[in-house]
Amino acid sequence: MSITKKRKVANTKVDKSKVYSLKDAASLVKEINCTKFDSSVDLHIRLGVDPKKADQQVRGTVSLPHGTGKTKKVLVLCTPDKEAAANEAGADYVGLDEFIAKIESGWVDIDVIIATPAVMPKIGKLGKVLGPRNLMPNPKTGTVTNDVAAAVNEVKGGKIAFKVDKTGIVHASIGRISFSPEKLTENSTELINAIIKLKPSSAKGTYLKAASMASTMSPGIALDTKSLMN
Description:
This protein has helices spanning 5-13, 22-31, 80-89, 97-104, 120-123, 127-130, 148-156, 181-197, 225-228, and strands at 40-47, 59-63, 74-77, 93-95, 112-115, 159-163, 169-176, 208-215, 221-222. The chain is α/β, with parallel strands linked by helices.
């Protein structure tokens, strides 16, 4: 596969033998951006855990101080008495049975699903569709709650969910390329601190094994993991 001139130039600006501080990476990622659109900036963090073990499945949520720069589509599945609160909070879709039917027929044009505890028995059958897409409501991520308005506000305000994948890596968006280096740094720090706090007691050895920052279609920038732990 051929690479563009911009990508070739970007590759020359990233020293592959070097690890960068978060602050330096946040500046460099903007300098080497290859896209004309407002691309996503992501962190990829390899953890020293065994995701096959139930007690080492690192997952959680974090509210990024500057949001992700992306407007998330939120579906609230609830009983009629909660619909007004969900709508007032800015949910994109609110209802129950009609949306369950839509999801069963393949509709998943949403980013987050929030549900009340009372309707969870009805949603259980959607696990095969929602599970692989990380859309299944979960009390641990605050997406199963009776306070649907607060949950919608948090998601719209920049709250993201993250979890370690099968290979031991957490992938998460921490903003857009249009963000200032300071905003990217602050969002990254918030996510990393949240992950550090969730270190499983059974995980031995180095916890933050490796980390990198990258924007869409641009080379990754290796981060100094020792500095991230401070």
